[in-house]
Design brief:
The protein contains twelve helices and eleven strands. The protein is of the alpha/beta class. Helix content is 47%, strand content 16%.
Length: 343
């Protein structure tokens, strides 16, 4: 555990509407959590914007100049090497040198991963990093990983994702014995493609994981599993479908309330309940997704992040840092590697 507030590096030029979501989100986080935040980006852009919204400068918020920005349509690998002074690259270096305890960005996900691999490197014994997204359900959340770092996976990758997701649920979400499921097209262990069938055998054989077997897509939102494991391609598609359905449901509820005077009166009576439901479905309320498996705490936000989403992502990064997640992951991955060596 840390004996001081975490120091978070924040990409000030990552979101679609930068820099105001980042600056406002950072100010909210400073006031709410007491973290020190280092915002990376072009000083000529960030300083005037910060002065515009923060009339009383915070001593816990500072800007670290980064002259370049990686655009969303750039090749991640090429742009990461050709833009060494980008806001993402500078943030990663702050993390590597220990000037920051974690890094948060709502920028190009591929560039964040590429920069992380170049600057921080993979954690020892890690086959592939994975992005772990927190998905809201009626009674809480579940963790879905991978949601985009690895489109093509092997069975032992999924086993490692289960190890990382299990530990994340324990340390950051506070679930003592997370139920871990493997996303498939049927409950039986013989269901699924070759990848899921082989991964099922590996995860089932790990006695440190409370593995409940295969989980179908329709069961993910029932609370059956606290952690759901899949490859990055399937996970990313699932995440985007989930976000689209949540948005559609929200729109349908709002349209239904406006449909006639009786519905509008009823809507007034249950306004608070509706607002709470809509808020629970809003991705901006649940923070960013940790990129697990790198030698550093990195949290990836959505490109459409608003100030609440940035604040939430900073909260996730701070909590992961305070819970010493990096060290705990290293211990668990080393245990897995030794098990394979011994056998």
């Amino acid at each position: 555990m840390m004996d001081r507030p975490p120091r978070i590096a924040l990409d000030g030029m990552g979101s679609d509407d930068y820099p105001f979501p980042e600056l406002n989100g950072a100010l909210i986080a400073v006031k709410e959590f007491g973290y020190e935040i280092l915002i990376t980006g072009d000083e000529a852009l960030l300083l005037p914007a910060l002065q515009q919204i923060d009339t009383v400068p915070s001593t816990k918020l500072s800007i670290v100049h980064a002259s370049e920005k990686i655009e969303t349509d750039e090749s991640p690998a090429f742009s990461s090497r050709s833009n060494p002074n980008s806001s993402i690259a500078v943030g990663m270096r702050l993390l590597k040198t220990g000037e920051a305890d974690a890094f948060v960005s709502a920028g190009n996900t591929g560039a964040i991963l590429a920069n992380g691999l170049i600057t921080l490197r993979r954690m020892p014994y890690t086959r592939r990093p994975a992005i772990a997204a927190l998905i809201p359900i009626p009674k809480g959340y579940f963790v879905l990983l991978d949601v985009g770092a690895n489109s093509d996976c092997k069975a032992d990758f999924l086993h490692q994702f289960a190890i990382m997701g299990n530990l994340y649920a324990k340390r950051v979400l506070g679930i003592p014995h997370p139920k871990v499921g493997l996303l498939s097209n049927g409950e039986e262990k013989t269901k699924g493609n070759a990848l899921t069938r082989e991964a099922h055998i590996l995860i089932q054989g790990d006695k440190n994981i409370n593995f409940i077997g295969n989980v179908e897509g329709k069961e993910m939102f029932t609370g059956l599993a606290d952690v759901v494991i899949t490859d990055g391609f399937t996970g990313n598609v699932s995440l985007k479908v989930t976000e689209a359905v949540a948005k559609m449901v929200t729109m349908l509820v709002k349209d239904a309330i406006k449909s006639n005077i009786v519905a509008m009166l009823g809507g007034i009576l249950v306004r608070k309940a509706i607002q709470n439901t809509v808020r629970a479905l809003d991705p901006n309320e649940h923070g960013g997704a940790p990129l697990l498996g790198l030698n550093g705490i990195v949290v990836v936000g959505h490109g459409r992040s608003n100030s609440r989403a940035i604040r939430s992502a900073i909260k996730v990064a701070g909590k992961a840092t305070k819970q010493n997640l990096l060290h705990e992951l290293q211990v668990e991955l080393e245990k897995q590697a030794k098990k394979y060596t011994d056998t």
